């Protein structure tokens, strides 16, 4: 019975150690936060350049204004 308890305690200790080692470092978390802010700023500036808000973006804004899906598809096939 004591051997089972010791084995269980060791397994729990190994699992806790593995999960703490797998956690991202504070430096990585800071980089992720910086990346998230950069992406938000980039998306905001792109929306500002198109003159549309987040809810006003349409396919014509993305495809260049004329919404010619067939032409866009043929252009993509040329690559």
Q: Measured on Cα atoms, how large is the radius of gyration?
A: 26 Å
Q: Assign the structural class, choosing from mainly alpha, mainly beta, alpha/beta, alpha+beta, or little secondary structure.
A: mainly alpha
Oligomer classification: single chain
Total discrete domains: 1
Which of globular, elongated, flat, extended, rod-shaped describes the shape? rod-shaped
Give the termini separation.
69 Å
Overall mean pLDDT stands at: 74
How much strand content do the residues show? under 5%
Keywords: Signal
Any descriptors?
79 residues; mainly alpha; 4 helices; signal
List the helices and strands and how they pair.
Blueprint: H1 2-22, H2 26-50, H3 59-63, H4 69-78
What does this structure look like?
Keywords: Signal. The chain is mainly alpha-helical and 79 residues long. It has one domain. 77% of the residues lie in helices and 0% in strands. The chain has four helices and no strands. The chain is rod-shaped. The model has no long low-confidence stretch (mean pLDDT 74).
Describe, in short, the structure shown.
Helices cover 77% and strands 0% of the residues. By secondary structure, the chain is an all-alpha fold.
């Amino acid at each position: 019975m004591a051997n089972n308890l010791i084995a269980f305690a060791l397994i729990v200790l190994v699992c806790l150690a593995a999960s703490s080692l797998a956690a991202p470092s504070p430096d990585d978390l800071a980089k992720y936060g910086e990346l998230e802010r950069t992406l938000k700023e980039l998306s905001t500036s792109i929306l500002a350049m198109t003159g549309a808000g987040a809810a006003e973006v349409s396919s014509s804004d993305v495809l260049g204004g004329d919404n010619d899906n067939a032409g866009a598809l043929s252009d993509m096939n040329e690559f």
